[in-house]
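SEQUENCE-TO-STRUCTURE ENTRY
===========================
What this section holds: a protein sequence and its matching fold, both as plain text.
Question of interest: how does this chain fold, as expressed in C-alpha cells?
***
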Amino acid sequence: MFARLGRWCHDRRRLVLGAWVAVLLLGGAVAGAAGNDFRDEFNLPDVESKVGFDILDESFGGEGTGIVGTVVFRADQGVDDPEVQEAVTSVLALFDDVPEVVRIESPYDADGGRLISSQGPGAGQIAYANIELDPDIPFPRAEEIRGDVVEALPEVEGLRIELGGFIFAEFEEPSSEILGLAFAIVILIAAFGSVLAMGLPVGVALFGIGLGTTLVGLLSNVMSVPDFATFLGIMIGLGVGIDYALLIVTRYREQLHGGHTVREAVGTALDTAGRSVLFAGTTVVISLLGMLLMAVSFVQGLAVAAASVVAVTIAASLTLLPALLGFAGERVELTRWRGLIAAGLVALGLVGVGLGLTPLVVAFPVAGVVLVAGLFVGPLKRQVIHRPPRPHDETLAYRWSRMIQHRPWTTALLSAAALCVLAIPVFSLRLGFSDESNFPEDTSTRQAYELLVEGFGPGFNGPLLMAAPLPDGADLDAVAAVTSAIDADPGVAFVSPAQFDDPAAPSAVVWNVVPTTGPQEVETTRLVERLREEVLPPLEGAIGTDVAVTGGVAVNIDFSHYLSSRMPYFLSAVLLLSFLLLMVVFRSLLVPLKAVLMNLLSIGASYGVIVALFQWGWLSDLTGVAPAPIEPWAPMMLFAIVFGLSMDYEVFLLSRIREEWHRTGDARTSVADGLAATAKVITAAAAIMVFIFGSFILENDRVVKLMGTGLATAILLDATIVRMLLVPATMELLGDRNWWLPRWLDRLLPTLDVEGHAEPVLDLTVPVDGGEAEPEAESTLVGGD
C-alpha cells in the first residue's frame, strides 16, 4: 500500500501539490473569516477552590471569581495630589465602556483607602485599582483593551502608571523558530550536500505547520484551546516535519544510489521509511492524546491542538513529499555553487531576523543576486563535487558501534549512571504556576508587581478568599472566631473582617486574606494547606458549615494537585500502549521493554535539567530565568512529545537493525550495520530538533523557554547517550535474545510491518490517464541547484 501511495503521488504530482496549496489557501481563508477564540479554562472537578467560587457566584454575584488585572501607580507628590487623581481617574474611566469589565475598584472610591499604601517607603505614594474582567474573556481581546489603555496613558511629572496581572501582561510572539529554521538549513546541507534535498524537508515542514496552525485556530472556536497552543504547534511541527521528511528523503537517495529509477525510489522510500514515519508519528499523536485522560479542558485543548499539527505533518510527509520528489527527480543529487552560496545567505538572513540584527537581513537580496549571477558567471554555475559514500563497514558509526560492543557492560553502566545523575533534581520537583515576578524586568507587568510588593508586601499579589454558606441562626461569634484564628496564623499578613451577603439576614460570608509571601512561594502553598487541614476544621463545627479556601492562588494549587494525581494514569497508559505497539512491530519482548526503560531514563534526565534551571535557578545569569515552580501541565506535555519523538529514532534504528538481522542472521553485526546505516540521518534529525527547540531559550516568555529547553535536552540525550551508547551496548549484551518472543504470543499478535521492502520495485511503467501504461523515461542530471 505504501509503495502504491508513493508511486501514485509521484505520477500525479501536479494534482497532489495543487490540492495541498488549495487546502492551505482555503483553510487560511476560512480561519480568517471565522477568527479564533483562544482561552484558558480550568474545568476542575469539585475541589475546594471551585466550591468557594460557587458560593461567591450564588451569594455575592460572582464578585471575586473573574480575572483581575490591576492599574498600579506611584506618585512622588503623593496619590492624593489633585493632578495625580485627575490623571488616574481618566485612565480608569477608559474601562467604564468596556463590556468585558465586571467591576472596578478605585483608590478614590469612598471605601478605597485600603488600596493606598499606608506603611513603608511607599506610604501615600503607591496605590492600585482592581479591574475585574469576565472570566471568559479571550486573550486577544484583553490585549486589545491593554493596548488602548497604554496609548491613552497621561504624562504627569513624578507619576508612573503600570498595568499588572496576567490578563494585561505583554506577550511577545516567539520568533526563535526563525533561528531554528536557519540552523536546519545549515545542518541539512551539511548532511545531504544538496540544496534541493535540503529544501524538500523544509518545504514539507512549512506546509505542515501552516495548515496545522490554521486548524488549531479553527479548533479554538469549538473547544477550549490556550493561546500558547499555536506556538507549541509551530515548535513541534517544524521539528517533526523536517525530521520525518529527512528520513524519507534519505531512503529515497539510497535507492537512487542503488541504480533505481525515480519512481521506484519514491515507492521504496514510502514502503520503508514512510512506514516508520507513520508509526512514529502515530505514536506521537497517541502520546499527546493520552493527555485527554487528565479531564481538564486546558490540557485537552493543548493535546488536541498539538496532535492535530503532528497529524497534518504526517499527511504532508506521506503525500506531498513524494510529489515533490517527483518534481525533483535525480536533480536532488545535484548542487551548484550558486545554490549553495544562496542557501547560506538565506540562513544568515534568517539569523538576522531571529536575533533582530537588521544588517544581516541584507543577505536575502544578496542571495537573489547570487542566483541571478549564477546563470551567467562560470564559477557559480559549476557543480559541487561530493565524495562518494563509504561502505558501511568503513564509516565512523560502524567503528563506533563495534567499539561500544567490545565494552558493553562498561558503556551500559556508565551511560545509565550519567542519566540517573542528571535525573536527581526530579526528586525536588514542585509543580505550580509562576507569577508576574518571572516576567522580564523591563515589562510593565513586572514593574506593577514590584510596586505592589514595595507598597503592600509580597502577598498582595496573590490574595486568598475564604467563603462559606451560613445556616439559619448561625453563631456570629463563631464567625468572628474564624477571623481571629486566621489572623493569628504566622503566614497571614492581613485578614479582613467577615463580610456578609446580607447583613440583616446573612446566608453566606467571605473573608479576604493576604499572605505574607508571594503567590508562587512554597510557604503560600503551605499556608493554604494549613488553613484547610489545621486552622479551619476545629471552627467549622461551631459555625455549622465548611469554609472553602479559594481565589486564584488556591485554584492554581488545586489544579497542580489534581494534575499530579492524574499523572500516573497518563504515564501508565502511554507506556503500556507504546510497549504493546513496539512488541507487535518488532515481535520481541525485550526490545520494547528496553525502549520504554531507556526513554524513561532520558526523559527523567531532561526533567532533572528543567528543575535545576527553572526551579532552582541554576545558570540564571545566562538563561534569564528566575526560580519558580514548574508549570503543572509542562511535565505531561514534555513526556507526551518527547516519548513520541524518541520513538522516531527507536523505530528507524531498530527497524534497520532487524532488517539486517533478518538478512544475515548475525545479531551482533546487524547492530553495527543498522547503526552505520542510520547514524547520519539520526544525528542530523536530532541536531535539527535540538537547535529548533533550543533556540526558544532566547525568548522572554518563561513557558516558551521551559518547553524549548526541555524538548532540546531530551532529544539531545536520547540521540546521543541512548541511541549511540545504550542501544548498541544492550543489544550486544542480549544478542539473539533481543528478538525472542514466545511462539504462542507470536501467533496471537497481529502483523504490523514498519520495515517494508527495500527490494527494487519491478514496475517500470507509468500509468497514463485514460490509456495504457507506457515506459517511464529515465531522468537526466540537468539543471538544478
Summary: The first strand starts at residue 67 and ends at 75. The two ends are 33 Å apart (CA to CA). The first helix runs from residue 2 to 11. The chain has a mean pLDDT of 86.
